[in-house]
Amino acid sequence: MFGWIHESFRQLVTRKYGRETWVKIVTLAKFEEGLEPDIGHYYKDEDTLRMVHAMGNVIGIPIEEVWEAYGGFLIQFTMETGWDELLRAMSSDLEGFLDSLDSLHYFIDHVVYRTKLKGPSFRCDPQNDGSLLLHYYSRRSGLYPIVKGVVREVARRIYDTEILMRVLERKQEHLETFVMEHVVFVINQVC
């Protein structure tokens, strides 16, 4: 994963729990302090997962909660670092924003970082009752809680609304050369 993700982990932990907690996490994850958040570096998924497991152990919360908290903070940090106008310009409503996430990931992966990576994919289906079904597809298993944090924070910060979001279904789809995680979320706006 991109080093920018490690830097946003560092920002999240130091802001909420302090520098000492971050140093404990870095030590437990077996990173050399100061080298763990190299923004321009691409870290193996195993390195990032080691960092996340260390965060969960030191802070004392389950991994799913680490990922969800990270998803929410990711939007805050992204907006603070100059991406707020792009995020706000993606769509006039949450459904359109969610339908634009594939394009955003393509832009980040191929234009900003000039890689050939294949990020997650999203598809949004409006329901007759006003709810949305969000389909999330990823080659990386277990990262779906990030989506909950991201969507909740986007709804709050960009669309000034509160939502309830839950996992309706989670499955592994075995394709020719890899396994794709497919998670379906139900999103309801809180009135």
TrEMBL record:
Q: Where is the Heme NO-binding domain?
A: 3-165
Protein species of origin: Panagrolaimus superbus
What name does the UniProt record give this protein?
Heme NO-binding domain-containing protein
Q: Which GO terms describe its molecular function?
A: guanylate cyclase activity; heme binding
Stored Pfam families: HNOB
Q: Which GO terms describe its cellular component?
A: guanylate cyclase complex, soluble
Q: Name one GO biological process term.
A: cGMP-mediated signaling
Specify the superkingdom. Answer: Eukaryota
PANTHER family, from UniProt?
GUANYLATE CYCLASE SOLUBLE SUBUNIT BETA-2, SOLUBLE GUANYLATE CYCLASE GCY-32-RELATED
